[in-house]
């Protein structure tokens, strides 16, 4: 259903802090032209934590509208209360999305059984495909491969975004999960190696500012042309790392603004603009990646 280079899309804001829908349309057009394979709308990189519920739904709706069937849109969802995650999914059911990307509950550190029951409840509330999202560095909880395997037996849970950076899990997930279960890297620095080991692609932050390069790299890798893909990845590696010099999406929004992809790099508190000391780091990464 999905493969290749999927962008974890940033959400642009106007200078007065409102969602910039003109800027959002520009970003969607940019990714369609660059060959990006799918868009994640209002995932964690899209600042889902600081958008209101009404904004969240509208941004997803507008992203689908702007995509106009040319590129699949995956809606970011997730909450640390299961009933909220279920309700969020129901609110987005009729927006025209292709799937949900649902991050693990954050802060309250559920057990593995709690994680299973959480996602089971979400799956029971919708017929739309669900992509699990495991990012323990941001949520404080790690969904173990055995739990992912249990969840993969649920028909409309179709994939995992694994942002652990632990490449040993690719083979383990492949062994434990059902045959058609999809695996995506959520870690740009190890994304190509993830695909070499059997993954289907990457859900990427780097894609926001290097969309064509990421698409070319993933498409080459999926064809088994790893040497050519590696050449691109080597050039992008400073970017993969530089875009996380501060909490994401702080650096990537600054970079997108510097490259003229969005009107400004503003974020909502408690996130703040990229610090003066780290701007040269990101600027050098952009230069080194030849963007």
TrEMBL record:
Pyruvate binds at residues 45, 203. It holds the Pfam family DHDPS. It is an enzyme of class 4 (lyase). The active site is at 133 (proton donor/acceptor), 161 (schiff-base intermediate with substrate). Pathway: Amino-acid biosynthesis; L-lysine biosynthesis via DAP pathway; (S)-tetrahydrodipicolinate from L-aspartate: step 3/4. It catalyses: L-aspartate 4-semialdehyde + pyruvate = (2S,4S)-4-hydroxy-2,3,4,5-tetrahydrodipicolinate + H2O + H(+). Gene3D superfamilies: Aldolase class I (3.20.20.70). InterPro entries: Aldolase_TIM, DapA, DapA-like, Schiff_base-form_aldolases_AS, Schiff_base-form_aldolases_CS. PROSITE patterns: DHDPS_1, DHDPS_2. It comes from the Bacteria. Coiled coil: none annotated. Keywords: Amino-acid biosynthesis, Cytoplasm, Diaminopimelate biosynthesis, Lyase, Lysine biosynthesis, Schiff base. The record marks 44, 107 as: Part of a proton relay during catalysis. Its EC number is 4.3.3.7. It is found in: Cytoplasm. One of its GO terms (molecular function) is 4-hydroxy-tetrahydrodipicolinate synthase activity. HAMAP family: DapA. PANTHER family: 4-HYDROXY-2-OXOGLUTARATE ALDOLASE, MITOCHONDRIAL (PTHR12128:SF66), DIHYDRODIPICOLINATE SYNTHASE (PTHR12128). Belongs to the DapA family. Catalyzes the condensation of (S)-aspartate-beta-semialdehyde [(S)-ASA] and pyruvate to 4-hydroxy-tetrahydrodipicolinate (HTPA). Homotetramer; dimer of dimers. This is 4-hydroxy-tetrahydrodipicolinate synthase. It comes from Vibrio tritonius. The lineage of its organism: Bacteria, Pseudomonadati, Pseudomonadota, Gammaproteobacteria, Vibrionales. The gene is dapA.
